[in-house]
Design goal:
With 154 residues, this protein is mainly alpha-helical. The chain has 5 helices and 2 strands; from the N terminus they run H-H-H-H-E-E-H. Helix content is 48%, strand content 5%. The structure holds zinc ion (ZN).
Length: 154
């Protein structure tokens, strides 16, 4: 889940109930999907990302004027909105899950077992292509764990 993203960055564990940001994709079974998500090159990190990140941090500091709780809230909101930009809002993903559940006859797209009412996972074939009908499948938690491990979350 989302904690893995934080852990990957060496930050504190958070529980916002979002699924992991998927950095690569290697589905089980026969289907083949290209793995690589766009990543920044070292030069892009140096020339684009580092200055951007530093600017964002400076803005957060300036806007919060020494108020730690305000800075925290601004930072939290920024993080949330950026995640929504990538993943869509929770309401949209809930609807997509329902659609997928119907389309898949309430079965896990990987192992074929009956999907639990809660805790099923929307899995993207290609993270960059987002949460669309075409780019997702609904899977059980156990298959998700296996897939995440294969993708390098250990
Ligand atoms: Zn499964």
């Amino acid at each position: 889940m989302f904690e893995r993203f934080y852990n990957k960055l060496g930050l504190l564990t958070a529980t916002c109930g979002l699924s992991a940001l998927q950095l690569s994709c290697r589905p089980l079974g026969g289907a083949k999907y290209t793995l690589a998500n766009r990543r920044l090159t070292e030069e892009e990190i140096k020339k684009l990302f580092t200055p951007l990140f530093s600017e964002v941090r400076k803005r957060l500091t300036a806007l919060s004027r020494g108020k730690k709780d305000l800075r925290w809230a601004l930072q939290r909101k920024l993080l949330k909105e950026l995640i929504y930009d990538e993943r869509g809002k929770p309401m949209y993903r809930r609807k997509l899950k329902e659609q997928k559940r119907l389309e898949q006859n309430n079965k896990c797209a990987v192992c074929g077992s009956k999907l639990p009412t809660k805790y099923s996972v929307l899995d993207r074939f290609k993270a960059m292509k987002g949460y669309t009908i075409k780019n997702t499948r609904l899977i059980c938690q156990s298959c998700d764990t296996t897939i995440q491990q294969q993708r390098g979350y250990k």
